[in-house]
Task: structure prediction
Amino acid sequence: MRVLLINGNTTPAITESIARATQECALPETEVNALTPPIVLVTVEGYLDGQLSAALAIRVCTPLVNSLASLSGGLLWQRW
Result:
């Protein structure tokens, strides 16, 4: 299993910490990949912050999902 963790509201150091904790809780064969968007919000405290954080996460995910879909024969979304 693969887990993609996107932490769109803090720093890369916090993202790495969350990724380590996730890996510790996961099965040994689970692959955890963690990303922080290039532009991050320090906190998400309301509707606008949430929308901005989601937009940044989508910006990071889109190229990754496209490349994974091409590797899986376009079946990525059907598997999820």
